[in-house]
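Inputs:
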Amino acid sequence: MTTGMIPQTRLVEVRQNVLKQNDIVARELRQRFHEAGVCVVSLVSSPGSGKTAFLEKTLTLMRPDYHVAALVGDLATENDAARLARSRAPVRQITTGTLCHLEAAMVRTALVGWELDQLDFLFIENVGNLVCPASYDVGEDLRVVLLSVTEGEDKPLKYPTIFNTSDLAVLTKMDLASAVEFDVAAAHSNIQQVRPGMPVLRVSSKSGAGMDEWLQLLASARKSRIERA
Amino acid sequence: MHELSIAMSIVEMAEEESGQRGGARVCAVHLKLGALAGVVKAALLSSYEMASQGTVLQGSRLVVEELPVVAHCPKCLAPRTLDSPQWLICPECKSPASEIVQGRELQVFALELQE
């Protein structure tokens, strides 16, 4: 460049995914999970939609038949891990500080010392947030999005990305549905609008309604995973 | 709100690329942003300004190209640009179209370097 001339710029092609570091770690995790034969299920939802209650019930019901464990993410406190530990399954809390989502590297760190090949299922409860967790792969086989009846039927339309990146939707707190006049058909159609073909389950962690179907679905997810391997 | 950590990743990536090219000054970073990437453009732009402070990227522009959702329509057997990320339906034949071809991008695709 000669002094006095207008600086010239040139365009250099890069083509790099911004989240490639996370994607690389997630791929490594997925590979490890496959080799160990553990089926990994992540749960995402807004805060207070019943992820922990649902997971506690799930762990308790599964423990007689399967080796199950859970990781649970929150900004602060170990309250959720303490609640989940009542199921007597191995549980570890990941506290993210100010971070609003789990990243693959946090999952990798939290797993240190666990023998994955001793497990049939590993559950990862993400931080309660319907926005940020959508962008971060944590190596799961199945991403399950929860929507509680107290939240309103239009959540899928307000947060299309998280519903769109999930494999299964679970309507929780169904025991409260009539009290809050929850329109199940509307919720169903909103989910189908943002994620056509996604299966939708209805459960109540309190009464246990719908848990059988959920457990059957997990068993078949694990079976098809073993067959694929 | 994860835009700040995403902006920091973009800055890091651009610094690295600039380093590989002899520390060339970066005037602009071009980013492709899909409508289903879960990232808000306005928040990303203001985060970028913060994240680039005190780095070789300071004062550079972040040029965001927003990409609509394109899904493969199982009935038309063709890719279709959807009207909204909230409605995964073929705009031509109204069939549900869940196979996404474009719309999840969060990719730095070019840098403008000063010669």
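The CA atoms of residues 4 and 46 of chain B lie 9 Å apart. Flag for discussion at group meeting.
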